[in-house]
Design a protein that fits this description.
heterodimer; A: about 120 residues; alpha+beta; Alpha-Beta Plaits; about 15% helix; B: about 400 residues; mainly alpha; Cytochrome-c3 Hydrogenase, chain B; 3-stranded antiparallel β-sheet; 16 helices; binds iron/sulfur cluster
Chain lengths: ~120, ~400
């Protein structure tokens, strides 16, 4: 038995860099498989709604807005970022991004509408 | 002893040693615990019922969220049961990846526990260093699966993500560092006077009692019971992997610490074997959306002990019944026994020593009216009105605030 077994370790640590990062000043890169905010590409969507069917939390809604035109509404507050919709989509119209800072003060902004017109940016 | 000589103190439901809700009612005589009553149900989430309303595909994610720490345990346990009913032959590579993630999860869970145990005995230095080192394995998990917790690696019929050469190298490097660190923690645990003196003889559970009370996981193994589902009823790739079941005969909290740190070393061994022996091939096999009629029980050795899932199907896309038995439930009877005739100050570490996960345990909630006259059942609405009146009497009125709040909610 030896009291103060960790003492050496503590002394060494005094001269080491901190193990923590200075978030938010310093941001870490997310790993390559990261499942963050889901984005939708209306040009590829065929409106099969498989993503809606498989979404565990009912976060994604596909609406038909015209002939072969679909828009997606993703409720960021419901989404659990499992990316099952990405796996389910037969046309790869959905993609998981590395975006994580999704908190909003205004709850309305959590509903993201991806318009059917691919040229226009996603409205919030 | 007569009833009135005992002094009853409630510990919990807020923060009973851990940041999870559970209620322990301790009958004390002086500092000594004469009896323990445990009340579960404070965090009942209705997951089993919710599972019936979702398809099998959706349920994988739902059941993964039974527990944050052993999420892979629950999702694997569930998919195993469904795959068994569907008669799916999961590819070998997928089974190896599941095993790999399972062991990485065990590493992060045991390191987490070591830190929590240090914290409970006031040895926060240990907490700081173990949790710093735990980040290495968290980063590996994030690299392989995409997330630090709730990995989402499982799917019916296999896994969702493959693993490549560079990743294998990163894991190997990470595991090398962790192994060095764990050797150091084994030294600390077996030499540091504070730990040995504080944990020895605390929360004693003899081998006979462990068998009698059906303890599982490291709690049972620290009492010399060689009980490990990975060994007794191998699932995933464990049948092909060479590892030792760690047991210890200290039968106290110290023994449980030793078992866990030694299990870390075994986990590194298993991870290396998985990476070396992983066969090539596909990672998924197609499982139909509609699962044929049948039922299956699946067992899994989670970091905390045996996890059991029961699934009954009825030929549709929705399960008829899903039942989850988390390891903590199996160990709670042992906790009751361990606390009896011990000192109150030992309570936090004895409870923490089973590595409890109370929220995962809660499967139902029961409301009791124990017959006393001033107790009554209130409906939610009545309770709300009662609270509004009570505050109004004190001169506090929330009506305006409430209106504004409703307006804001209504506008969404
Ligand atoms: S990531 Fe998961 S929860 Fe979010 S929209 Fe896709 S399927 Fe639904
Ligand atoms: S699964 Fe893909 S193609 Fe089908 S509706 Fe969803 S986004 Fe469109």
């Amino acid at each position: 038995m030896r009291p103060g077994k960790m003492f050496g370790e503590i002394l060494c640590s005094l001269f080491k860099k901190p193990a923590t990062n200075m978030y938010p000043a310093e941001k870490l890169d997310m790993p390559k498989n990261f499942r963050g905010k889901i984005v939708f590409d209306p040009a590829k969507c065929i409106g099969c709604k498989l993503c809606m069917k498989d979404c565990p939390s009912g976060a994604i809604t596909i609406n038909k807005v015209g002939e072969k035109q679909f828009e997606a509404v993703i409720d960021l507050s419901k989404c659990i970022y499992c990316a099952q919709c990405v796996d389910s989509c037969p046309k790869k119209a959905l993609e998981a991004t590395k975006e994580v800072e999704l908190a909003q003060l205004d709850i309305k902004k959590l509903k993201v509408v991806f318009g059917a017109n691919p040229k226009s940016d996603a409205k919030e | 002893m007569r009833e009135e000589e005992k002094f009853k103190i409630p510990i919990g439901p807020q923060h009973p040693a851990l940041k999870e809700p559970e209620n322990f009612s301790l009958a004390l005589k002086g500092e000594k615990i004469m009896g323990v009553e445990i009340r579960l149900g404070y965090n009942h989430r209705g997951i089993e019922k919710a599972a019936e309303a979702r398809t099998y595909v959706q349920d994988v994610y739902l059941l993964e969220r039974v527990c944050g720490i052993c999420s892979h345990a629950h999702s694997t346990c569930f998919v195993q049961a469904v795959e068994e009913i569907a008669g799916a032959q999961v590819p070998k590579r997928a089974l190896y990846i599941r095993t790999l993630i399972a062991e990485l999860e065990r590493i992060h869970s045991h390191l987490l526990w070591l830190g929590v145990a240090g914290h409970e005995i006031g040895f926060d230095t240990l907490l700081m260093y173990t949790w710093r080192d735990r980040e290495i394995v968290m980063d590996i998990l994030a690299l392989l699966t995409g997330n630090r917790v709730n990995y989402g690696i499982n799917t019916l019929g296999g896994v969702r993500r493959d693993i490549n050469k560079e990743e294998i190298e990163t894991i190997n490097n990470g595991v090398d560092i962790l192994e060095e660190r764990t050797k150091y923690y084994i030294e600390v645990a077996t030499q540091e006077t504070t730990i040995i003196k504080r944990l020895s003889g605390v929360g004693i559970l003899s081998r006979e009692d462990a068998l009698e009370l059906d303890a599982v996981g490291p709690t049972a193994r620290a009492s010399g019971v060689k009980r490990d589902i990975r060994h007794d009823d191998p699932y995933a790739a464990y049948a092909e992997i060479d590892f030792n079941v760690i047991t210890d005969d200290h039968s106290d909290v110290y023994g449980r610490t030793v078992v866990r740190v030694k299990e870390l070393m075994e986990a590194y061994k298993i991870v290396r074997q998985c990476l070396k022996d992983m066969p090539d091939g596909p990672i998924t096999v197609k499982v139909p959306r509609k699962i044929p009629v049948g039922e299956a029980i699946s067992r899994y050795e989670a970091p905390r002990g045996e996890d059991v899932h029961f699934v009954k199907s009825n030929g549709t896309e929705y399960p008829e019944r899903v039942k989850v038995r988390a390891p903590t439930l199996a160990n709670l009877r042992a906790v009751k026994h361990m606390l009896k005739d011990r000192f109150l100050a030992d309570m936090p570490i004895v409870v923490a020593a089973i590595d409890p996960c109370f929220s995962c345990t809660d499967r139902l909630i029961s409301v009791e009216n124990n017959g006393s006259r001033d107790k009554q059942f209130l409906t939610w609405e009545a309770l709300r009105n009662y609270s509004i009146e009570w505050h109004r009497d004190k001169g506090i009125d929330f009506t305006e605030l409430n209106k504004n709040f409703r307006k804001r909610l209504g506008s969404i």
